[in-house]
């Protein structure tokens, strides 16, 4: 492993016999620990993982959750057979075992992986996973909910409703599929979708039930089998005449070269950091409402943490609609009043809250230490969820406030 240390930030280049395997970036820590997704993709760069790790810090800060931000990426094909993918993950875990063993980095599912993959990987390198860890199976859905809540607040902010609005979804997978269902159920028209295999466009809107049936039968290749739409280039989806664009696929898919051609009025991302800074500047000059991605897609972290705390799914969704929705509305109103962008407002908020979290973690009171002790017992399965759930919702409400 090759380490690059910039004050508290660490970037680790992982190799085996001089072959590049991937990267780990530790952007921040709380009590010497950090966490974030471990993704698999054939094209991953050190800069991408570093930026995504910082994005996790912002996400934790925005949500008020005491976690350090990190990210990891393994070079590989996410659509390869599971055994092949897991072999690569285990080899990667062996290379970074010192980080994993001390929990300087604790991985979660991300693009191209799921929590079962992560559990298998950790077990194979002899590391213990607590009974209540890595149990969330709804991360993509919760991310979709936070994107949906963000879209509702954005449309309300500009005096529109979802009914009849045209939506393009870049990435029709773990996040894009449930997001399409939420939007369509409230009157929006899903007119374009894409996967790694291509994209489809129907300006009249897809019949979602038929589309989902084709996805179930053919996977990401549905773009070559579904008859009710025109096959287009994946990049062309971003530039279609739509009201709302939801990037739910790759990092930096919207750049300076294609941003001038985007026609959407609102951009709400399910993906992490889909816009380059130059692209965001261009879109702001075009009066496109861009909500910060560490806000719009925070539902995966928030929902997963609430599920860990034994909160029921329906209560998690209602919590997001009420409390996350109110927070996003406040960001939009403050941005207008101060003549700043929503990204600037949310960024200042996230940084300030994370600094507070970090300070209090370093200056723990006896009650804080007792809380950590009880949390560890719960994580080990000793404390029942029925005792934790009643206190969880007020805790998350205070964290987000």
Notes on the structure:
The protein is of the alpha/beta class and 401 residues long. It folds into two domains: 2-133, Rossmann fold; 140-346, Rossmann fold (3-Layer(aba) Sandwich), CATH 3.40.50.720. 47% of the residues lie in helices and 17% in strands. The strands form two sheets. The chain has a seven-stranded mixed beta sheet, with helices on both faces. A six-stranded mixed beta sheet has the order 1-2-3-5-4-6. The protein is globular, with a radius of gyration of 21 Å. The chain starts with a strand and ends with a helix.
Helix and strand arrangement:
Elements: E1 2-6, E2 9-16, E3 19-26, E4 34-41, H1 46-63, E5 70-75, H2 82-95, H3 97-101, E6 105-109, H4 115-124, H5 139-157, E7 166-170, H6 176-184, E8 189-195, E9 198-201, H7 208-218, E10 230-232, H8 234-237, E11 244-247, E12 266-267, H9 277-285, E13 289-290, H10 293-296, H11 299-308, H12 313-338, H13 342-362, H14 366-379, H15 385-400
Parallel strand pairs: 4-5, 4-6, 7-8, 7-11, 11-12, 12-13
Antiparallel strand pairs: 1-2, 2-3, 3-5, 8-9, 9-10
Helix pairs in contact: 1-13, 2-4, 5-6, 5-11, 5-12, 11-12, 12-13
Overview in brief:
With about 400 residues, the chain is an alpha/beta fold. Helix content is about 45%, strand content about 15%.
């Amino acid at each position: 492993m090759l380490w690059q240390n910039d004050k508290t930030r660490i970037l680790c280049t992982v190799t085996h016999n001089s072959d590049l395997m991937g990267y780990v970036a530790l952007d921040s820590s709380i009590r010497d620990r950090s966490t974030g997704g471990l993704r698999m993709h054939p094209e991953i760069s050190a800069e991408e993982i570093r930026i995504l790790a910082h994005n996790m810090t912002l996400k934790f800060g925005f949500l008020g959750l005491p976690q350090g931000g990190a990210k990891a990426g393994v070079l590989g094909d996410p659509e390869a057979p599971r055994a092949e993918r897991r072999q690569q993950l285990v080899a990667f875990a062996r290379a970074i075992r010192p980080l994993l063993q001390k929990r300087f980095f604790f991985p979660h599912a991300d693009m191209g992986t799921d929590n079962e993959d992560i559990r298998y990987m950790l077990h194979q390198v002899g590391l213990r996973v607590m009974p209540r860890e890595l149990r969330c199976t709804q991360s993509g859905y919760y991310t979709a909910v936070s994107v949906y809540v963000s879209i509702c607040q954005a449309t309300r902010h500009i005096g529109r409703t979802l009914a009849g609005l045209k939506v393009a979804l870049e990435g029709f997978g773990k996040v894009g599929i449930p997001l399409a269902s939420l939007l369509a159920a409230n009157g929006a028209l899903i007119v374009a979708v894409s996967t790694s295999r291509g994209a489809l466009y129907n300006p009249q809107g897809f019949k979602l039930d038929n589309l989902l049936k084709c996805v179930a039968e053919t996977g990401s290749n549905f773009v070559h089998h579904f008859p009710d739409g025109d096959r287009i280039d994946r990049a062309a989806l971003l530039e279609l005449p739509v009201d709302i664009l939801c990037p739910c696929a790759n990092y930096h898919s919207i750049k300076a070269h294609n941003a001038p051609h985007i026609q959407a009025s609102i951009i709400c991302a399910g993906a992490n950091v889909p816009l380059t800074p130059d692209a965001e500047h261009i879109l702001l000059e075009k009066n496109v409402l861009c909500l910060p991605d560490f806000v719009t897609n925070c539902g995966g972290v928030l929902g997963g943490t609430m599920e860990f705390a034994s909160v029921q799914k329906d209560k998690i969704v209602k919590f997001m609609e009420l409390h996350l929705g109110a927070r996003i509305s406040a960001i939009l109103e403050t941005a207008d009043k101060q003549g700043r962008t929503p990204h600037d407002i949310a960024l200042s908020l996230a940084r300030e809250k994370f600094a507070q979290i970090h300070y209090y973690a370093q200056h723990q009171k006896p009650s804080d230490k007792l809380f950590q002790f009880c949390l560890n017992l719960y994580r080990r399965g000793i404390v029942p969820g029925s005792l934790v759930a009643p206190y969880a919702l007020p805790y998350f409400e205070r964290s987000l406030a």
